[in-house]
């Protein structure tokens, strides 16, 4: 276990700022997910932590030891790569034991430790096979076994589940979470899959363009996204974002758009002028179907109905804009129906014209 500090770390490749002034702390035993779209700098951040890249500027420390320029094997990290990076000509046992071998552990200890780890990961019956002779899920476990075999202080995962099919991915995700809790390791886990990050992380760091734009516990990031980018990246379907105009009138505040009108606490709008362009944000599960227009925040025409079993997704067009609701239990409206929805103000988020969340 270990505490990790990134202190104003940047990594430039020529003109590309792959990682741009990133600072965060990872507490002992904490599981951090780096979440963001392709190309936002996740892998580069992980490689900087592993010592596979050197930063252009900034400092990285593990347990108060500066490791910024330390070699990978001096850092005591275990890494699981996206494509597993198993050695095809070696047996599963040799693959798992590899980190022990490069660290000069005696053969007897290597065999004992390998058997131990393989058993705990349920792959002990595969030790004599080669990577080409086992399934994707088994390769993934082998890769995890190789990362944990030398009891590293920090585990690094680069999209370790992305090569698995959907069912196996959810199984493997539960397995990784269980493993992490059991071992109590410090982990930095990269993914572009928001559900994976929500399920696994103690805290999520959302990255955009080489920067960490928000870091916090999953539900906090989900409920209070710092920007429209974060709001749109978390949740499936994501938060509805609707451009609105602020109307201030006699101490009252309303948000308006074609087909939408909602009162808000004037305190929330106090730093804006009448007519300001804002963005209203609301999660699909916070849209309530109401019987008539009088109670409704907005009215739309039903564009798609997607029954998912426990819930139904209803997407409406509201003056050309698509808004999605997640309905539970209700008798859902049908294609082409006019549907009235209400948003309770405490579920409504506001973003300014730069896309930054307005604090309540
Ligand atoms: N070795 C490299 N040389 C040049 N550019 C790189 C290199 N590695 C990454 N990049 C660039 O840095 C940015 C971040 O890449 P990466 O960290 O791989 O993103 P992610 O893992 O989030 O998809 C991208 O624009 C990528 O093209
Ligand atoms: Mg990557």
Q: In which order are the strands of the major sheet placed?
A: 6-7-8-3-9-10
**Dominant shape:** elongated
Bound molecules: adenosine-5'-diphosphate, magnesium ion
Q: Please count the helical segments.
A: 8
In CATH, the architecture of the largest domain is 3-Layer(aba) Sandwich
Count of domains: 2
SSE pattern: EEEHEEEHHHEHEHEEHHEEEEEEEEEE
CATH topology of the largest domain: Rossmann fold
Average predicted confidence as pLDDT: 92
Share of β-strand residues = 35-45%
Descriptive account of the structure:
This protein has 360 residues and is an alpha+beta fold. The protein has two domains: 4-233, Rossmann fold (3-Layer(aba) Sandwich); 240-351, OB fold (Dihydrolipoamide Acetyltransferase, E2P), CATH 2.40.50. It is 23% helix and 35% strand. It has eight helices and 20 strands. A hairpin with a 3-residue loop joins strand 16 (298-307) and strand 17. The longest helix is centred in the middle third of the chain and has 18 residues, at 166-183. The model has no long low-confidence stretch (mean pLDDT 92). The structure holds adenosine-5'-diphosphate and magnesium ion (MG). Magnesium ion (MG) binds next to helix 1.
């Amino acid at each position: 276990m270990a505490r990790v500090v990134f202190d104003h770390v940047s990594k430039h490749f020529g003109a590309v700022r792959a990682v741009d002034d990133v600072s965060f702390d990872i507490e002992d035993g904490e599981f951090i997910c780096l979440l963001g779209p392709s190309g936002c700098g996740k892998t580069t951040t992980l490689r900087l932590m592993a010592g596979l890249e050197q930063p252009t500027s900034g400092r990285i420390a593990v347990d108060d030891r500066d490791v910024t320029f330390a070699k990978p094997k001096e850092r005591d990290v275990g890494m699981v790569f996206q494509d597993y990076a198993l050695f095809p000509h070696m047996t599963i046992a040799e693959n798992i034991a590899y980190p022990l071998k490069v660290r000069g552990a005696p053969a007897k200890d290597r065999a004992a430790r390998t058997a131990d780890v393989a058993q705990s990961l349920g792959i002990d019956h595969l030790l004599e096979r080669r990577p080409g002779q086992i399934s994707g899920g088994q390769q993934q476990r082998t890769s995890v076994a190789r990362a944990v075999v030398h009891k590293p202080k920090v585990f690094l995962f680069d999209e370790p589940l992305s090569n698995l099919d959907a069912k196996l991915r959810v199984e493997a995700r539960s397995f990784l979470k269980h493993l992490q809790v059991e071992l109590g390791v410090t982990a930095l886990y990269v993914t572009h899959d928001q559900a994976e990050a929500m399920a696994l992380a103690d805290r999520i760091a959302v990255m955009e363009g080489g920067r960490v734009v928000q870091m916090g516990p999953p539900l906090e990031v989900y409920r209070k996204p710092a920007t429209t980018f974060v709001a749109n990246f978390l949740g499936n379907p994501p938060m509805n974002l609707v451009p609105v105009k602020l109307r201030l009138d006699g101490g009252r505040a309303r948000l308006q758009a074609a087909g939408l009108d909602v009162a808000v606490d004037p305190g929330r709008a106090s730093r804006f002028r009448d007519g300001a362009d804002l963005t209203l944000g609301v999660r699909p599960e916070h849209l309530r179907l109401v019987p008539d227009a009088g109670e409704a925040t907005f009215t739309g025409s039903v564009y798609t109905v997607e029954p998912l079993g426990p819930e139904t997704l209803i997407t409406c067009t509201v003056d050309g804009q698509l808004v999605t609701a997640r309905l539970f239990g209700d008798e859902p409206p049908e294609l082409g129906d006019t549907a009235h929805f209400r948003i309770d103000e405490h579920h409504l988020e506001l973003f300014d014209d730069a896309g930054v969340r307005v604090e309540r």
